[in-house]
Design brief:
Elements: H1 2-28, H2 47-63, H3 66-94, H4 107-151, H5 153-157
Length: 158
């Protein structure tokens, strides 16, 4: 049990740090308010994103059972990995001349198998927690269509 607690604690802390940097980057692209892109003058870290992620994580940890949180995080991670697998194939087809610092050998085989494996694991948790995952997805879409699409730097370039 001590090993599980230590492992889970370290994963949660790393994910919180990563999430604050993701919010920072998304903000710099215009998909979240600019305040999430502010960097602390002394420490050079995205301090507002870190605070918001910390408060949200604390609230979720206090209100949602740990096993449900774990499954939702796993579902999100698996869906992200499946999206990357599919994205590699799409980019190989639509932009074959793009510079690729990382190579995927036998992408025609590895990417579909990776996506299928991730989606198969995703579906196991989805059967039980589909309503929560759909709720989070709808919330994300609401934020995107309510704020992000109008403020996206990429949308303004087009």
């Amino acid at each position: 049990e001590i090993g599980a607690i230590a492992g889970l604690s370290s994963v949660v802390l790393v994910m919180m740090m990563g999430q604050s940097r993701i919010a920072y980057t998304i903000s710099r692209d215009g998909l979240l308010p600019k305040m999430f892109g502010k960097v602390h003058p002394r420490f050079r870290t995205p301090y507002i994103s870190t605070l918001v992620v910390g408060v949200l994580a604390g609230a979720l940890a206090g209100l949602v059972p740990l096993n449900v949180l774990g499954e939702l995080v796993s579902m999100g991670t698996l869906l992200a990995f499946a999206t990357v697998c599919i994205g590699v194939l799409v980019l190989r087809r639509t932009k074959p001349d793009i510079v690729r610092p990382f190579k995927v050998p036998a992408a025609w085989l590895i990417c579909p198998l990776g996506a299928l494996a991730c989606l198969a694991l995703f579906m196991q948790a989805f059967v039980v927690h589909w309503h929560l995952f759909v709720g989070w997805t709808v919330l994300g879409l609401f934020i995107y269509f309510g704020y992000g699409i109008r403020n996206s730097k990429l949308n303004k370039q087009a």
